[in-house]
């Protein structure tokens, strides 16, 4: 008597195997729909909160309070986000290739809009954070639009000062780092000086720089260069000193000279360490830039921030902070793009 093994298996097992993928697909579609429409829901809630919840506090002589809420920049921004989210939801339903991008970015947009809504609740609506020191997002956006030309001009001045100081600091740091990493005598005399002067914050030398240099721009450039010089020098020297000896032995066997060993072997092998120094120098240059503009340089975002703080225009102060965040984040992104292009084999080890 022969027994068919397929007939001995329970029928409900076969049906459960068939139902499980469909259930998973349904659950995935539900999560995707929630993610896609989250910005729409959160944006509508933020609009309702802004338009219909009473304000818990008012700022005297505020131009924003005289304008109907539906004509202000903040609700227009929320309406634009809701409309764009609806268009993205419709586009991903028609074009499947667009669906992963929408599903990935929609929760981020919803989170950003949610932060704006909570920010307005705790400041303008509930009054937990008092005016004028903690303005709501509507006041910050209005200040940003009102002084957009001045903020753009300040950002250009800051960029000019930052690039000048950073380029000078990188150039001097690379030269001193290569010399200290390759020549023992230079390292013997230079390392104590580096350990002594390097840890001193560049901002502590502002009075000295303003006395030594004829203009505030030159003094600010020198301070930023000093802040960048220390990490670039230290990481460059460390990277070159730690290049495996076998690299040089192979190059010498092929007839390489000293210049070839330095610029074609040592420096390329030390590039991962050098880029860490460039990144650290970039972060210190941001701090030095803002402090230099706040104290001595009569232009730039730091000067604008201090100027508006003196007039208690905290909406514009926060607008300058927003510009700084976008400004500095863009510069760091550019540095990482250059790093990923030059160090293709290490792409993704440090993400930004």
Give a written overview of the molecule.
- The protein has 352 residues and is mainly α.
- The chain has 2 domains: 8-134, no CATH class; 148-346, MetI-like (MetI-like fold).
- Helix content is 77%, strand content 0%.
- The chain has 14 helices and no strands.
- It has helices spanning 5-8, 11-52, 73-94, 99-125, 137-146, 148-182, 184-197, 206-212, 216-241, 245-253, 258-269, 271-295, 301-310, 314-342.
- α5 crosses α14, α6 packs across α12 and α10 (245-253) runs antiparallel to α11.
- The longest helix is centred in the first third of the chain and has 42 residues, at 11-52.
- Mean pLDDT is 84; it is low at 1-20.
Query: What is the β-strand count?
Result: 0
What name goes with the CATH superfamily of the largest domain? MetI-like
Shape: flat
What's the CATH architecture of the largest domain? Orthogonal Bundle
Compressed to H and E, one letter per element, the order equals HHHHHHHHHHHHHH
* Assembly state of the chains shown: single chain
Q: What Rg, in angstroms, do the CA atoms define?
A: 29 Å
> Percent range for helical residues?
over 70%
* CATH classification class of the largest domain: Mainly Alpha
Largest sheet: none
CATH topology of the largest domain: MetI-like fold
Mean pLDDT: 84
Distance between the termini: 68 Å
Low-confidence stretches: 1-20
The tally of structural domains comes to: 2
The class by helix and strand makeup works out as mainly alpha
């Amino acid at each position: 008597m022969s027994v068919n093994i397929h007939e001995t298996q329970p029928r409900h097992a076969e049906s459960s195997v068939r139902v499980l993928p469909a259930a998973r697909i349904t659950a995935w579609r539900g999560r995707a729909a929630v993610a896609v429409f989250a910005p729409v829901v959160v944006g509508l809630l933020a609009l309702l909160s802004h338009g219909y919840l009473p304000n818990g506090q008012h700022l005297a002589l505020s131009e924003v309070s005289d304008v109907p809420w539906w004509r202000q920049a903040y609700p227009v921004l929320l309406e634009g986000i809701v409309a764009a989210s609806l268009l993205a939801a419709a586009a991903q339903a028609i074009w499947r290739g667009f669906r992963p991008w929408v599903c990935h970015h929609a929760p981020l947009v919803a989170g950003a809009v949610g932060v704006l809504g909570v920010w307005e609740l705790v400041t303008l609506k509930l009054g937990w954070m008092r005016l004028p020191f903690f303005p709501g997002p509507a006041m910050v956006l209005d200040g940003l639009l009102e002084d957009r030309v001045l903020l753009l001009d300040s950002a250009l001045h800051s960029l000019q000062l930052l690039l000048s100081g950073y380029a000078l600091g990188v150039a001097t740091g690379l030269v001193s780092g290569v010399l200290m990493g390759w020549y023992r005598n230079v390292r013997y005399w230079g390392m104590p000086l580096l350990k002594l002067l390097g840890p001193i914050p560049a901002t502590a030398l502002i009075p000295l720089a303003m006395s030594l240099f004829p203009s505030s721009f030159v003094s600010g450039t020198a301070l930023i260069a000093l802040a960048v010089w220390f990490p670039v020098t230290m990481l460059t020297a460390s990277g070159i000193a730690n290049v495996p000896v076998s690299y040089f032995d192979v190059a010498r066997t092929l007839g390489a000279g000293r210049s070839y060993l330095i610029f074609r072997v040592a420096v390329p092998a030390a590039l991962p360490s050098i880029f860490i120094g460039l990144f650290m120098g970039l972060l210190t240059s941001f701090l030095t830039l803002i402090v230099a503009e706040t104290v001595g340089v009569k232009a730039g975002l730091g000067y604008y921030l201090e100027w508006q703080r003196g007039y208690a225009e905290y909406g514009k102060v926060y607008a300058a902070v927003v510009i700084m965040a976008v400004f500095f984040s863009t510069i760091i992104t550019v540095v990482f793009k250059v790093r990923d292009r030059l160090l293709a084999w290490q792409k993704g080890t440090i993400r930004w």
